Amino acid sequence: MSVVLKIEIRDRIAILTMNRPDKRNAMSDGLLAALDGFFSAPPEGVKAVILTGTAGHYCSGLDLSEHVARDAEGTLRHSRGWHAVMDRIQYSGLPVVSAIFGAAIGGGLELASATHVRIAEPSTIFQLPEGRRGIFVGGGASVRVGRILGADRMTEMMLTGRKYGAEEGLRLGLCHYAVGEGEAFELALDLAGKIAQNASLSNYIMIHAISRISDMSRADGLFTESLSAAIAQTSADAEEGLRAFLEKRPPEFR
Q1: Phi and psi torsions of 163, nearest 5°
Q2: Lower CB count within 10 Å: N or C terminus of the chain?
Q3: Cα(250)–Cα(173) distance, rounded to whole angstroms?
Q4: Which of 44, 110, 167, 225 is catalytic?
């Protein structure tokens, strides 16, 4: 039986490769559980993660052959399960870089939008085709993708089944980098390496605070920013960062 999620550790970077090539890496319950298992208990020493696909595709979304068998309650519970796993990916405290090519469709786009840095190759297809299939998103797109695109543009995208490529995705915020064919993984490795050199606490606070501040009122957001700054800027890593700056050397964080 093939492994649906391959895990490789390179120094302080975990490389997660979704491995269902015959299904364009569609999200099965088994793959979802494997992602959940990794982000629930990451290996010790890992400071950043790269998430990618195989056989020309990132993730083509929910495995509809499993979806068909669920009733309303089963679908509700499955959707909430997706939400829990996507939250785990976004808020585990580990920065996650997506190296995207081919399909990032439906649940694949929901998965990508839960990661923190997204790199797309020319073959990338961003799409939310659920409306064209008589269903609705259930893995968090209405919140995560909706906040990237705005409600108006996401509504149009779903109504028409519109596809966006890497360059359009870059302009809209669906990805942060658009690169050439075969270049996403190398850039992901470079960026993950740089991110892994940051202080773990500041990475953790950036991941947790910024998205939550965007949900707050102006006054609450500013107060939360002050609390976050107070925690980060009084840490041992902050002391090391300042000392390294003054001594004109790279910092050596914990």
Answers
A1: -110, 140
A2: N
A3: 32
A4: 110
